[in-house]
Structures are given as C-alpha cells and as structure tokens.
Amino acid sequence: MENFDFFNPVKILFGKGKIAELGNHIPKGAKILMTYGGGSIKKNGVYDQVMEALKDYDVKEFSGIEPNPHFETLMKAVEIVRNEGIDFLLPVGGGSVLDGTKFIAAATYYEGEDEWDILAKRAKITKAVDLGAVLTLAATGSEMNSGGVVTKAATKEKLAFGNPLLFPKFSVLDPETTYSLPMRQITNGIVDAYVHVMEQYLTYPVNSPVQDRFAEGLLLTLIEEGPKAMASETPDYENRANLMWSATMALNGLISMGVKSDWATHMIGHELTAFHGIDHAVTLAIVLPGLLTKMKEQRGEKLLQYAERVWNITEGTDDERKTLAIQKTEEFFQSVGIATRLGDHNVGQDSIDTISQRFIERGYVGMLPDVAAADVAEILESRL
Ligand code: NZQ
Ligand code: ZN
Fold first, then answer.
1. Are 153 and 109 in contact, with CB atoms under 8 Å apart?
2. In angstroms, what is the span from residue 311 Cα to ligand 2's centroid?
3. How far apart (Å, rounded) are the C-alpha atoms in residues 310 and 215?
4. Which of 11, 283, 313, 349 meets the CB 3.0–4.6 Å disulfide criterion with 170?
5. Interhelix angle for 300-311 vs 318-335, to 10°?
6. Which parts of the sequence belong to the Alcohol dehydrogenase iron-type/glycerol dehydrogenase GldA domain (predicted)?
C-alpha cells in the first residue's frame, strides 16, 4: 500500500427529518446565502423544510444554478456574496448546486484577476466562505468531498478544482428528498457512483485488501439496489437510503487511500458533456467499457479480481473472463436504462477528433500514465 494522509471533516446528518436540525449546525447570526437549481426543491417541499429550519436566520437566495454549473452563472452569485457580506453558503440540490457553491465559496476571496484561473490554472485557494449542504440527488459524493467541476459555457470547457477549505462543514442526507427524482436522475446517480468506485479500484494491485473489499462492497450494493429502485413503483426508503450512502461513500476519499486512482474516464466524459451536453453519468457509461478494453492487458490483474469477486466469473481463459467482466459492466449500465454508445447520442468522428486534439494539447488524460492522450481517439472510436 502507498503512503497517505486521510482527512475528512464533513459531519453527515443522515436520515428522515434531518433537515429540521439545520439550525444546530450553522453559527447563530450567520448571514446565509441559500443556493439552488432550477426549482425542483420548490416542488418537492425541500425548500419549505429548509426555510422553516432557518427561520431565525437572515437568509438570501440564489437560484438558477444549472446542471453542469456554469462559471458565468456562479460569478453572479459571487457578486452577491461579496456585496451582501454573506458568511455562510447553503447549497440545496444535487452535485451541480453543491459544486457550483464550492466554486462560489472559493471565488469570493480570490484575489487574482480572473476567477476562472481557479480551474484553468489551478490557482491556489487560500480562503473560502464556510458552507454546509442539503443533498437531494445521490450521485457525485460532492456532499462529502472537497472538489467540484465547473463549466465555462463560452469556451465549452469543463474543469475540476478542489481544496480542503471546500469540504462542507456538514451535509444533510435525507433519502426522502430523492423521492421526487425522475428515474433518469436516479439511474444517473447509480452509474456515476459505480464509475467513481471503478476509477479508484480498477487500476493496479498495491496489496490493499481493505480498500478493495470496501470498493467491491459498494459495487455489489449498487448492482443489488439499482434494479430495486427501477422496479418499485413507489420509492422505498431503505432502497433510497442505501443508494444515497453508497454514492457518498464512493467518493469521500476513503477507498482511494493508498491505492492508484485513475480518473481518465471522467476526464474524457467531461469533454463529451462540454461539447454535447450529455449527462455526466451517461458519458461515463459510454467511455468506461472502451477504456477497460484498451487497458485489458495492463490492468489485467485487477480486472480478473473484479470479474471473480463482483460478477462471479470463474471459468474461461484470462482473456475471456476479462472480456466478460467488461461486457457485464456495460450490460449493467444498459439495464438501468442508459444508452452506452456514442452513436446513441449523435456523436461522430468529427467530435472524436476535436476531443482527442484537446487531450493531445493538454498532454495527459487521467492520473496514471497508462492512458495516454494519443489513446483517447481509439477509446472513443471503439464506442461509436
Ligand atoms: O436544478 P433542479 O431543479 O434542482 O433539478 C435538478 C437537475 O435538473 C434535478 N434534481 C436534483 N435533485 C432533485 C431533482 N429533481 C427532482 N427531485 C430532486 N430531489 O436533477 C437534475 C440534475 O442535477 P445535477 O445536480 O446536475 O446532478 P448530479 O448530482 O448528477 O451532479 C452532476 C454534476 O456533478 C459533477 C458532474 O460533473 C456534474 O457537473 N460531479 C461532481 C463531483 C464531485 N464534486 O466530486 C464528482 C462527479 O464525478 C461529477 O463530476
Ligand atoms: Zn462522476
């Protein structure tokens, strides 16, 4: 196992009715900016629950944070935070609202000329506004990590940023808030969480049985709970609770400690969202089978472990078992209703050329050298 520092200070307030306890966790007298998206929280009652819990506070609102949040939109909120002396941010929504608000928290105190440099140049974040979160969509893990992803609409760039100052002070995870989700967002969440685990697990063995078994446990839970969510006509609390906790655990840092993480699938997926607006999770379901096929030799040991422990594949040659595990993975994504081919989303060779050119200019893809910029074209072409 490799050396690591593990730090995760996020207090998790999990379960039914937990929104009512918000006031116990925000400093008295704080001037709050509550941020949210396109209005789902007004339809499902979450907005009212939050407002009731914050009735003793001075609360301003910023709405309209879009899926794959735009830098341009978020900068409007930064102005409000600066002008109104806001000292606590409360995102209420999915990963986009949470990520967008982390960016607002960092950009408010940014002293450089262009706040976009926080993403484009990884400019150092030295101070951030405190934030806590109310999650309404189980998927990204943003509620318990210190990272985010923001898109500049003007240039179609979707980039990540992060800093320990951006860990939420707390996150409220009430599974009942997910009851109003359309099935598309539930299944997106299942696939996003699944691929988060794969990016940290399906790389190279480093003798990390604890992390591996945690990762396999999360994958198996998603494989079990995903179809249940699709099958039940009315939301089942236990099912939603297990999905929510799986997604949080998939990207709160725990399973990545001491192991080799990848993130190449995410990096390629971000480009598909930036250029084509394809849902984040859908891009991952498209890219991952192609990437694993390309890495079949290099990552063979972990692929065989995954085949046996997650998919019970014990017969056939090494190559047959690896191929079948990749096929089962893609079939799982399809079984929750996701179209896993580029052609399903009207993406053709011209776009592959543009995306692969971006990686060649950038000079890298994920965190491991095994996926090279020059491989992106082949990976995407295998997914046409
Ligand atoms: O905007 P509203 O009206 O709230 O509607 C949202 C949005 O349209 C809706 N929604 C959310 N909760 C709902 C609901 N609708 C009904 N009932 C509810 N309870 O769902 C739609 C999608 O929301 P979004 O926040 O975009 O989804 P998700 O949570 O999947 O977040 C995706 C974003 O997170 C980034 C992605 O790149 C993408 O930008 N990621 C962030 C990560 C992180 N911070 O660690 C890691 C991930 O890999 C991911 O990259
Ligand atoms: Zn993701």
1. no
2. 22
3. 10
4. 11
5. 60
6. 9-175
Which listed ligand is nearest to 144 at the C-alpha?
1
Question: Is the beta carbon of 178 within 6 A of some atom in ligand 1?
Answer: yes
Which residue out of 62, 143, 185, 275 has the highest number of ligand 1 atoms within 8 Å of its CB and is therefore the one to mutate? 185
pLDDT in tens, 277-312: 999 999 999 999 999 999 999 999 999 999 999 999
Give, as residue ranges, everything with CB less than 5 Å from ion ligand 2: 192
148, 166 Cβ separation under 8 angstroms: yes
Q: Is 200 in the pocket of ligand 1 (CB under 6 A)?
A: no
CA of 270 to the centre of ligand 2 (A): 9
Q: Which domains does the chain have, with CATH numbers?
A: 11-177 (3.40.50.1970), 182-381 (1.20.1090.10)
Q: What is the pTM of this model?
A: 0.98
CA-wise closest residue to 274 among 78, 69, 117, 120: 69
Q: CA 324 to CA 240: how far, in whole Å?
A: 29
* Amino acid at position 48, single letter: D
Q: What is the mean pLDDT of residues 171-199?
A: 98
The most distant pair of C-alpha atoms in the chain lies apart, rounded to whole Å, by 65
Segment 363-377, tens digit of pLDDT: 999 999 999 999 999
Specify the amino acid at residue 179. Y
Q: Is 280 in the pocket of ligand 1 (CB under 6 A)?
A: yes
Instruction: Tell me the pLDDT tens digit for each residue of 126-153.
Output: 999 999 999 999 999 999 999 999 999 9
How close is the Cα of 2 to the center of ligand 1, in Å?
32
φ/ψ of 66, rounded to 5, equals: -85, 160
Rounded CA-CA distance 3/259 in Å is 9
Which of 42, 99, 171, when mutated, tests ligand 1's pocket best, judged by the most ligand atoms within 8 Å of its CB? Answer: 99
